[in-house]
Amino acid sequence: MRREDMPYRPNVGAVLFNREGRIFVARRADFPNAEGAAGGWQLPQGGIDADEDPAVAIFRELGEEIGTEKAEILGEHPEWVQYDLPDELIGKALGGKYRGQRQRWFALRFTGEDSDIRLDLDPHPEFDAWRWEDLANLPGLATSFKRDIYAVLAESFARFAVPA
């Protein structure tokens, strides 16, 4: 199938801020040698089920990916954003059915304790490590095809990167 004929996968993403105004980033389990390198670290995100409200989907995704829904929505990026997969991932990533993702992003405040974050609850976890990071560093941690979106989010949600 040609890229042009493939749809975008509907998706939500979370920029999760702690009480100090730092954000949650996680290292992809399939990219374990990326400790300091760009590309292996990302924000929680995932697909939106048919007829699911994005504001509901974001909490479901947090529960599935990081083991907690202890958060409250602070804000929402005002528009959908999208990215295209690089050529080498077309037909392989995202179940081979999509050309990329069309995403709705939320800023959330984490209301739990660090111990509430549990990457080990999923038998096939997406992430194998996590940390709190400065929002300004986010674009430099992203894989190349997500970097522009992360730069937009860093600007859009900068007002939340302060102690609560």
What is the compact description of this entry?
This protein has 164 residues and is an alpha+beta fold. It has helices at 54-66, 138-141, 147-156; strands spanning 8-17, 23-28, 41-42, 45-47, 71-76, 81-84, 100-110, 127-133. This is RNA pyrophosphohydrolase.
Descriptive overview:
Keywords: Hydrolase. A motif (Nudix box) lies at residues 46-67. Residues 7-155 form the Nudix hydrolase domain. This is RNA pyrophosphohydrolase. With 164 residues, this protein is an alpha+beta fold. It has one domain (3-160): Alpha-Beta Complex (Nucleoside Triphosphate Pyrophosphohydrolase). It has helices spanning 54-66, 138-141, 147-156; strands spanning 8-17, 23-28, 41-42, 45-47, 71-76, 81-84, 100-110, 127-133. The strands form 2 sheets. Strands 1, 4, 5, 6 and 7 form a 5-stranded mixed beta sheet that branches. The protein has a 3-stranded antiparallel beta sheet with strand order 3-2-8, with no helix packed on it.
What is the number of helices?
Answer: 3
**Low-confidence parts, pLDDT < 50 over ≥5 residues?**
none
What is the total tally of β strands? 8
Overall number of domains: 1
Task: Tell me about the largest β-sheet.
Answer: 5 strands, mixed
List the defining traits of the structure above.
globular; Nucleoside Triphosphate Pyrophosphohydrolase; 8 strands; 164 residues; three-stranded antiparallel beta sheet; 16% helix; 3 helices; five-stranded mixed beta sheet; alpha+beta
